[in-house]
Amino acid sequence: MRRILLFFIALLLAACGEQHVPPVHEAKELVVLTRGGPTTYVAPPGNAAENGAAGDSSGFEHDLVRLFAESLGLRARFVLAGSDAEVIRRLRDGEGHLAAAWLTPVDDPALLASAPYFVSSNVLVTHEATLPIEAIDQLAGRRVHVLGGSQQASALREVRSRVPTLQTVEEWKQGELDLLEGVAAQRYDAALVDQAVFDIAGNYYPELQGTLEIGRSLPVAWLFPANGDPTLLDRANAFMERIREDGTLVRLKDRYFGHIRRLKNLDVVRFIERMRTLLPQYRAMFHEAQTRTGIDWRLLAALAYQESQWNPLATSPTGVRGMMMLTEDTADRLGVSNRLDARQSILAGARYLADLRDGLPAGVPEPDRTWLALAAYNLGMGHLNGGRAIAGSLKANPDSWFEMKRVLPLLARPQYYARLKSGKARGGEAVILVENIRIFADILRRHEAPYRGLEGGEAGGGGR
């Protein structure tokens, strides 16, 4: 009986003990602790918090980790925590091989940091209608909202030693963008967030202002348990060095951050105002276009805004007309009888974009595939293919939007377009168009719900 009792006690202790992940050389997957956020991990709508295996998830940290896992011959499994503090605690408890959650190195012998891959800082954000806070002493008596358990919460605790009347409100059930939405709506006086998050949010909420950096700029790195696999940190550092040298890191940064802050605040304000006043008249038409083409309706709406500012009667001096600014030849080919009819124009423009996207070589990945198709929407596929040919002669990757952003403006130079059948083109304008559409689509994704259609499934295409 005593032996049986000891056996059950051992089982109970094992059940209550720490759950360590196996060493990487024995594992079938790389277990990564992270948290949701615009710089880290963006789950598909409806995805469970602990389910990090969904193929439609995205984010800068997410993509960076997946590339690292692939270099190890492993699959990445993301485990989402509720805060920075929880990420670090669970990493100490051995629940992940590494933490990738936009973290800075910590002064803790139990944790090791990789080589940094980003540098950021904490910025205090207020509404433009309030007087800017430009010095620490001006925080006296102020109330500042931060994410619970975040690095920003720790930074404010240090500030309180100097400004004891500063009030800090830690929010545990909101994300960084939710905090900034609260400031934009003037529900909160101020919020402290990461600079990169503020840069992203500036397109969603143009009434925000960031006037005070709190603390110094800090490196962003992955964290590893000191008692974990001793080779994993070395392999991570070698990976970082390789992607820095071959340009992968700068391309990934461009994918997530390269298009932000391109528009003036007035342009964003005008877009958001028309999103509230004009877009409701055409939302159902964009939904129908998504159903027919599989392209996210918000991307199609962003394209339409860039083309006509959602004016179905728009006409340019070159003869393109309507909501989606179709040429007469394109409209005829797509069976459009009246280019000034909003529904006909939206459906035809969506089909045209889908045809352009499908016409690219099979090896072009997303989201580059969609961005290149948007460039072709402006230039025509002949000019885009001319640009792709130039890219090949310059040893640039014609399947990469990052590379093609530098190549397409060359279509306006005689030394390049003279050798192309397609001739001269305003490639620089196409680049601006695509980058603007990316911003408009981001704003729409923040403010407008996905359309699930009759079957409840969200369409793909044009994702971040």
Structural notes for this entry:
The chain folds into three domains: 14-117 and 220-257, 3-Layer(aba) Sandwich (D-Maltodextrin-Binding Protein, domain 2), CATH 3.40.190; 119-219, 3-Layer(aba) Sandwich (D-Maltodextrin-Binding Protein, domain 2), CATH 3.40.190.10; 266-447, Orthogonal Bundle (Lysozyme). The protein has helices at 2-16, 60-71, 84-92, 151-160, 176-184, 195-201, 230-245, 248-257, 265-277, 283-293, 297-308, 328-333, 342-359, 368-379, 381-393, 401-407, 414-417, 427-447; strands at residues 29-35, 75-81, 98-103, 111-113, 118-127, 143-147, 167-171, 190-194, 208-225. 44% of the residues lie in helices and 14% in strands. The model is unreliable at 1-18, 47-54 and 456-464 (pLDDT under 50). The chain has 464 residues and is of the alpha/beta class. α10 packs across α11 (297-308), α11 packs across α18 (427-447) and α13 (342-359) crosses α14 (368-379). It contains 18 helices and nine strands. The radius of gyration is 25 Å and the shape is globular.
